[in-house]
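Why do we care about 3D structure at all? Because function follows from shape, and shape follows, mostly, from sequence. That is the central idea of this module. The next example makes it concrete: a single protein chain, its amino acid sequence, and then its structure expressed as tokens.
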Amino acid sequence: MEVFLKRAERPFKAKIGEAKTQSTFDNIRKATNEIPAKFRRTIGSEIPRYLFTFSQEIDSLSPEIIEGVLDHILIFAESLKDLLNKDRNQVSQLLTKRSDNKVRSLSDLLNFFVEKAKNQDFLKNPGSFENLLTYLFGDKTEIHQLTEVELFIKRAEKNFSQIYGEVKSREYSENIKKALSGVDPNLQDYINSEIPKYLFTLSQNVENLSNDTIERRTINIIPFLRAISNVDGKNKEEINQIIIKRSENKLFNLIDLFNAFLGDAKEGNELESCDNLEDILLHLLGEEKARMQFSDIEAFLKRAEKKY
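And the structure:
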């Protein structure tokens, strides 16, 4: 570690002066030595190497940027003291979650943080490791407010942007979230655990599907969700029983009905108006009354057949 620091010092002294360089490097040495042992062997050795590499690139940089980079490296090293009670897996999971997969390791974090300084975006109020993460990725409470539903939709949005572009994909995500929030409260947990996962799975397959297929499926999800915004107080089990009965045991639950609805739309048989669940049942399964009458007649004939 000391070898890299010694080699790095000379170029910095030429750019920002001996006193500033010596003071900052001494502080970085001290902070690096105080990094918890479980991280010191890896990131503690990377910091001096990073300084040496950066020292070879500073000729064209202003003193302000150079000092900003050194300050960021010092802030980073000092903040790692807060990781005393965490292991490497916990830190990796924390970074991945807070950064939305942009950063996965302390090495990634160092590079990401220093890049800010290179762009003259300096951290004004250094402090804890949490402050550093908040500066880079936003407040922790904002991250925690992302529910599982929102995370699946967010990931799907990123994939769909390849087809629709970012603006249209973001608009679609907002419409999906709005439609999901309007689902009948009796069905919300059930639907919220299934539809976003379906959407994300579909988005992962965009390269293997035609644009027309993707568009038909995504567009028709919203009318389906709106149709179940009011199911007259029925719960999931009651709805599923209706579906089983109306479909004559071809469909067994609301998700089967959802898939059948999208499958019908894929074939070009889209429902023009869809105000409630009954509209979907009629569209896919026909009139309940007619079907019931046929069942009653069939039952009488079966009984008569036995009698004679």
